[in-house]
Amino acid sequence: MKRLEAKLYISIYEKDDEGDQDILELAKLDFHILQVMHRDEVKSISLWYKELNPGSMLGEYVRERPVECYYWALGVFHEPKYAKARMMFAKLIKMFSFFDDTFDSYGTLEELRQFNQAVQRWDEEDARRIGKCYGYVMSHISNTLDQFVEDRASAIGIACTKEIIKHVSRSMLQEVVWREEGHVPPVHDHIRTTAISTFYWALACISFTGMDACDDVFSWAISFPKIIENAAMVSRLMDDISGHECEKERSNVATAVDCYIKEHGVTVEQAKEALGSLVEEQWRSINEEFLTNTTVPVEVLTRAVNLARVMECMYKNLDGYTHSSETADPIDKLLNSCVNH
């Protein structure tokens, strides 16, 4: 998001007749140098994804979005020093997308109960016995995390990420149970569960792992601290507001919009407006936490803020991950089109 902002400011500044041309040229060079680095990384992610060949194993139910996953990572870290963290994030968010799609669009309730049990035990063989899709998802998440450790990522950070994934699995299963029972819970109960199933808690943890954060950071992260909870709620609410109609078609899971409508007897638009106000409340809390938290470094807190910022760009008007045409323009601006020198 910072790179999109920079490119916009460059285009504005170069129209200023009184602007400093040396500063303008340095800004353009900075953008170009970073863009070359980011292009190399997205090429690497695309080749990695091609080798996974998920289509042959998982079929048409998965959303194949490797470039969009890298764009997501780029929103969390754009700096050169965080190249490792960026690549780890992009790979893991793609794995989480497989996980999410399997719960939302593929598995039966009984299969997903068994899969959740396999995840709780972190047992790849149990997952394979349920079916090839479950074995594929479980083994690739596990192998990806193990590879991070081999590449000298924090073993404690990876262990924390695995524990959080177990929480996510339980929350996703609860959503499926609600769907199968036709149950539309109160808004508070829905958000409390589905904020975890966004995977943002796990993504925050893997972000810190890629940054080589100290052990104290992971002790803090595993507690689901308020700033991460706020970012996860921004993710959940914006996903449900912008993707309400799409989600009904894709998985028929009750969204926060459905829950608000049932609880308060309002229209879809009124529910979205009220939930939008709740997003603003989460942002105020994020800002307060960022300014007052003295437990962890600012660089760590910035990742939680950036996770929320990505949602503002990806889900402002529509689910920009499912409907990838929505993100085509910002991706083109960041990775394809250059700045003129």
Automatic annotation (TrEMBL):
<dbReference type="InterPro" id="IPR008949">
    <property type="entry name" value="Isoprenoid_synthase_dom_sf"/>
</dbReference>
<protein>
    <recommendedName>
        <fullName>Terpene synthase metal-binding domain-containing protein</fullName>
    </recommendedName>
</protein>
<dbReference type="InterPro" id="IPR050148">
    <property type="entry name" value="Terpene_synthase-like"/>
</dbReference>
<dbReference type="GO" id="GO:0010333">
    <property type="term" value="F:terpene synthase activity"/>
</dbReference>
<dbReference type="GO" id="GO:0000287">
    <property type="term" value="F:magnesium ion binding"/>
</dbReference>
<dbReference type="GO" id="GO:0016114">
    <property type="term" value="P:terpenoid biosynthetic process"/>
</dbReference>
<dbReference type="InterPro" id="IPR005630">
    <property type="entry name" value="Terpene_synthase_metal-bd"/>
</dbReference>
<feature type="domain" description="Terpene synthase metal-binding">
    <location>
        <begin position="50"/>
        <end position="284"/>
    </location>
</feature>
<keyword id="KW-0479">Metal-binding</keyword>
<dbReference type="Pfam" id="PF03936">
    <property type="entry name" value="Terpene_synth_C"/>
</dbReference>
<dbReference type="InterPro" id="IPR034741">
    <property type="entry name" value="Terpene_cyclase-like_1_C"/>
</dbReference>
